[in-house]
Amino acid sequence: MLEVRSLRAGYGAINVLWDVSLSFPKGELTAIVGPNGAGKTTLFRALMGLVPHQGEIRLDGRALKAKTWDLIEAGLVMVPEGRLVFKDMSVEENLSLGAYPRRCRKAQSRNLERVYELFPRLKERRGQPAGSLSGGEAQMVAMGRGMMSEPRILLIDEPSLGLAPVIVKEVLGIVRRLKAQGVTIALIEQNTHLALSVADNVHLMRSGKVLLSQKAAQVDLDRLHDLYLAREGGPANP
Q: Residue 132 has what DSSP assignment?
């Protein structure tokens, strides 16, 4: 289990997260929802050691204080918002970059076949420059690259952003398959309906704070939207 306690993080003199506490249970999918500027991406960056932070981050009960590259070696992997593929490199070269962690190198060929099984379209385009792909295909490359790192916990930031509904459905289908394979997943998603359709647990963030934490099956969607749109205040655990 990944746990966060009293986390504060930001950029320079600007603080973004204010005493955030939440958890990501092993083998489950936890969705982080909230409006733009809520601090969702900053939370993921803090978990990956990409922004200065205070507070506790614990994995399986042990404090995480390692550098970003050490966190990846430990199995904490992030699929960033906006895909961020290397456009001049081929699809397969982009995927292979995910196998950089030392523990993944011997299994690179096996993991590549696993990715191609999850994303058959990428196998068809393995030699194409990543810059020639559609937005949905580039998202598949980003997710496949993350899978090449053999994640224990996969942080996925806004996978539906800018994609056509039919592609969003396909990408979320892959997320469900990864969860079924035992990967612990944390998912940032602005679309609450999409988030609730795949999540086991939901945390709503606004203005750098957690306003609601519940099992997805117990969420009152009307109240969630009231909190989301600042029509209601509310404690972190109603």
A: G
